[in-house]
Design brief:
By secondary structure, the chain is of the alpha+beta class. The chain has helices at 18-25, 59-68, 128-135, 220-233; strands at 37-46, 73-76, 87-96, 113-122, 141-148, 151-153, 172-175, 178-181, 184-186, 189-197, 207-210, 239-240, 243-246. The chain has one domain. It has four helices and 13 strands. The strands form three sheets. Strands 1, 2, 3, 4, 5, 10, 11, 12 and 13 form a nine-stranded mixed β-sheet that branches. The protein is elongated, with a radius of gyration of 19 Å. The two termini are 36 Å apart.
Length: 247
């Protein structure tokens, strides 16, 4: 159907090693065993520049998120309530391809990189059906909630975390007599709030909720005006993930 983008997710068994279990136990109050936990891993973000909200990550942003996401919670629909917490990120890694030609690299000339999160759940009677749904591929769409430290307009080079520019992501502008689509490039992150299962997929690989707060050093009225403009630019992205699970 026109306008509908379909993606697939790969699900396979993931053996939980003693090393992985030790990483999980850094986040628990009492020692858990492999029989106590259900583990899955997900590609949550990459540095390709085809973000449908035109707010893509750079490798620098992924590197920041790699450390920021360890220990963060996993929820449903970005609901900020304790009862919506279902899992926790216990480890992250960045997988980088060895792109050898310019054609293989991203639009910014970087090697393709993916941020992988490893997530654990404690098996209980109450979440048994949820675990089955994850393992069975019912729940596989995910989005992230982050705060950028730099948000660079690719038209004028202005960092929109410090100064609001007049370009809008997704719109076309003439640059050197050629049309260019405006993107607000996330070139660093200073906070990661949570990961969330969501419903509607909107990006090719992994989606983000771009959060803007406490990023301006201006008088209050200017801060509010700039922040409102940025919220108009930033919309919620939800997307498919590629998931490996362990029972």
């Amino acid at each position: 159907m026109k306008g509908i983008v379909e993606k697939t997710a790969n699900i396979s068994s993931l053996k939980l090693s003693d090393e992985e279990l030790a990483k999980i136990n850094k986040h628990t109050l009492s020692v858990v065993t492999a029989d106590d936990v259900f583990v899955f891993k997900a590609m949550i973000a990459d540095n390709e520049q085809d973000d449908r909200n035109y707010m893509p990550f750079t490798t620098k942003a992924l590197q920041d998120l790699k450390s920021l996401y360890v220990g963060k919670t996993f929820v449903f629909d970005h609901k900020g309530s304790a009862e919506k917490q279902i899992a926790r990120v216990y480890d992250t890694e960045i997988v980088t391809s060895e792109d050898k030609t310019d054609e293989d690299k991203t639009e910014l000339g970087e090697n393709h990189a993916e941020l992988i999160a490893k997530i654990y759940m404690i098996k209980t009677a109450s979440n048994a059906d949820l675990i089955k749904d994850i393992a069975g591929g019912i729940h596989k769409e995910i989005s992230t909630s982050t705060v950028p430290s730099k948000l660079i307009c690719n038209i004028c080079g202005v960092d929109n975390t410090k100064e609001f520019c007049n370009h809008w992501n997704g719109r076309k502008y003439l640059v050197d007599s050629k049309e260019k689509i405006c993107k607000l490039i996330i070139d660093g992150c200073k906070e990661a709030y949570e990961l969330s299962f969501v419903v509607v997929p909107a990006q090719p690989r992994a989606g983000t909720v771009k959060t803007f707060e406490k990023m301006f050093e201006k008088p209050k009225n200017e801060v509010e005006e700039s922040t409102n403009n940025l919220f108009l630019k930033a919309k919620v992205n939800e997307n498919y993930i590629f998931t490996e699970v362990s029972e």
